[in-house]
């Protein structure tokens, strides 16, 4: 597996752990140019932003659920609130995750 040079994470694509995102590939030059033009960033800075966004959205559903659960639990949220909110968030991801029941979300977190 290849790890992300930014965070050190393993990066699957399409939500499958057996397919790895090629993080060594340069981001799409058209996207980099658009980000640079719209933000005033240099091309190198814009490329870094694009790579960060791609890495964020390549996060597997299970990792996302666990991370968000831990974040919300830290601030005192209760599980019923957390699982409802995580289910809503998953539905709005750029590449929508499959619809998961509260039971499936619990199993991801607690095994």
Could you provide a short overview of the structure?
This protein has 111 residues and is mainly α. The chain contains 5 helices and 2 strands, in the order E-E-H-H-H-H-H. It has 2 domains: 12-57, no CATH class; 61-110, no CATH class.
What does this 3D model show about the protein?
The protein starts with 11 loop residues before the first strand and ends with a helix. The longest helix is centred in the middle third of the chain and has 15 residues, at 43-57. Helix 1 (29-39) crosses helix 2 and helix 3 packs across helix 4 (79-91). A hairpin with a 2-residue loop joins strand 1 and strand 2. The protein contains five helices and two strands, in the order E-E-H-H-H-H-H. It is elongated, with a radius of gyration of 16 Å. The chain has a two-stranded antiparallel ribbon. Mean pLDDT is 82; it is low at 1-21. It has 111 residues and is mainly alpha-helical. The chain folds into two domains: 12-57, no CATH class; 61-110, no CATH class.
Which terms summarize this structure?
111 residues, mainly alpha, 2 domains, two-stranded antiparallel sheet, 56% helix, elongated
Structural class: mainly alpha
- Whole-number radius of gyration? 16 Å
Largest sheet report = 2 strands, antiparallel
Terminal CA distance: 24 Å
Poorly predicted runs are: 1-21
- Average residue pLDDT: 82
Query: Residue share in helices?
Result: 55-70%
| Residue share in β-strands | 5-15%
Number of self-contained structural domains: 2
Number of strands: 2
Order of H and E elements: EEHHHHH
The number of helices is: 5
Strand order of the largest sheet: 1-2
- Overall morphology: elongated
